[in-house]
Amino acid sequence: MKAITFDAPGEPSVLKLTTVDAPQLKPHEIRIKMKSAGVNRADCTQREGNYPPPAGASPILGLECCGTVQEIGAEVPAGSFKVGERVMALLSGGGYAEEVCIDAGCVLHAPEALSDHEAGGLMEATLTAYLNIFEIGGARSGQMVLIHGGGSGVGTQAIALCKAQGIRTLVTAGSDEKVQQCLKHGATWAFNYKTEDWAGNVKLSAKPAGVHVVLDCVGAPYLAKNLDCLAPDGCIVYISALAGAIVKELDLWVLMRKRLRLIGSTMRSRSVAFKAALVRKFAEDFKTELRRGELRPVVDKVYPLESAESAHARMQAGRNFGKIILTTTLL
After folding, report:
1. Which of 5, 157, 197, 292 has an alpha carbon 20 to 30 Å from 59's alpha carbon atom?
2. What is the reported pTM?
3. Which residue among 244, 264, 284 closes a domain?
4. Among the listed residues 222, 232, 169, 162, the one whose alpha carbon sits nearest the alpha carbon of residue 197
5. Quick one: 256 exposed, middle or buried, by C-beta within 10 A (0-12, 13-18, 19+)?
6. What is the pLDDT confidence band of residue 329, given thresholds at 50, 70 and 90?
7. Domain containing 188 — which CATH number?
8. Which of 155, 59, 133, 130 is nearest to 100 (CA)?
């Protein structure tokens, strides 16, 4: 089968379309013939050599996909899937290829309301937002959530999830255009972190208590301001550290006085059982929104699989709003 591979870590130019062996189907798995795959920041980090796949996962990039069921393992519950059905899946790797095999518990039927490109970019970003804001952060209706990187795939889906649950969102983005796009997408407030005092604006907007959850992909430079913006008993969930991971100073009195939590979170290294349970709970909690297409990912740009280099370059330059998608339909 055709797949995107690289021989050594490096810039986007190391990515190339090659022929590799198709994955072997295990009894609990489904083989999916790929239609589309989302591009995620984690893919870029792996390509750079800084995010190796977990043990047993495919070394091929790609953490989410949409495609059709091609083969079903012997231990997959009868009737849960049929050959030829359109599905979407949360992957530990392997999405940048013509075929992927994945545990059936990490697969959902793709909503009819979504295109192949939208379904291909839904699972990783949406479940990242769901896990960290709701399951870990404990956000609930009537509260406020601060989302950094509001124009990213995770950020845009976090806005949509919170809006569906009656949670007001404050987001940061890197340009006035992205600020307006975030507001149009459903953010309650949005601030340009390059030109505005985002922390001051968040504190003013979130009066009197502050925000209850911060979803942070920036890292160390934002820690003190995040803490200042939090309501008592609030938490910061770190899903990346794009601007640095080393904090030189931390005022522990702030944590103790407001009873705050700092949480680090990644999903890729979680067990298959954990991911399958998360997929089931998400599908139940948002079944109506999924069926209606109300969690439709924002598709920024679609590239053929062989143009993965261009897709990664666009993401690294920060030019995207929403999801960048790779499609195999042109192979």
Report:
1. 157
2. 0.96
3. 264
4. 222
5. exposed
6. confident
7. 3.40.50.720
8. 59
